Amino acid sequence: MGPQGVRPAFYALAPGGWRDYVTILHLPYTAWHLSYVAIGAALAPELEPARLLAALAAFGLALGIGAHALDELQGRPLRTQIPAAVLWALAIGSITVAVGIGVGASFAWTQWLLPFVAVGGFLVFAYNLELFEGAFHSDLWFALAWGAFPVLSGYLVAAERLTVESALVALFAVAMSYAQRTLSTQVRAVRRGRSPERAGSVAAIGVPERALRTLAAGMVILAGALLVLRW
Questions:
Q1: N or C terminus of the chain: which is more exposed, having fewer CB within 10 Å?
Q2: pLDDT above 90 covers what percent of the chain?
Q3: Residue 167 contacts residue 173 (beta carbons within 8 Å)
Q4: Which domain holds residue 89?
Q5: For the residues of 119-187, what is the DSSP string, one character each?
């Protein structure tokens, strides 16, 4: 636990055992960003379930498991007890399978996906391992990598092209992800003891944390509504 027994994240379970593996999935945030994939796909002229499922599987593996396992290797922000070797195995294994899904989809549907697979593979390591002296580990790159990129990927796999409307929705995802990053940075500073004057003060993070929970739920609901509308 963190300062004065405060958990490192509102979704973090008690440390140890299987609970650590659930914690590193960052489930509310993973659902939020997978919703961008679904939103992008749902806005395409045609929506085939197989394409949507392939995109969700790739991002679920690369982001939900791979990126978060790499993130935990950087200073143990969630204070799990998962061995480093296991985290590396989870990261490499999940990202490799995700890349494989992307390559397979590119040959099955459109080879325009290949550059996206390459960019995604680069960003997951550059952002989460803070490569190049952290050049890609910023609020803007978070919004681009985990906001715009999932939307455009979801649209591209469904429509086999990008359009002005897909770019506008990507900008929406950038704005939402930037807001998420701003709020979560404040929350992490308190929960993980990086804000000395407020460390351990749950009251200090009540408002931004409620906003994060609400935004995560709202994004999932929006994605679900669009998918129901299309089907």
A1: C
A2: 85
A3: no
A4: 3-230
A5: HHHHHHHHHHTTHHHHTT-SHHHHHIIIIIHHHHHHHHHHHSS--HHHHHHHHHHHHHHHHHHHHHHHH
pLDDT tens track for 26-39: 999 999 999 999 99
Determine if the pTM surpasses 0.85: yes
Q: How many domains does the chain have?
A: 1
pLDDT per position as a tens digit, 41-80:
999 999 999 999 999 999 999 999 999 999 999 999 999 9
CA distance 90 to 45: 36
Distance, CA of 25 to CA of 15 (rounded, Å): 14
Q: Are 170 and 181 in contact (CB under 8 A)?
A: no
Check residue 13 and report its DSSP letter: P
Q: Which domain CATH number covers 124?
A: 1.10.600
Q: What is the pLDDT of residues 52-63, one digit of tens each?
A: 999 999 999 999
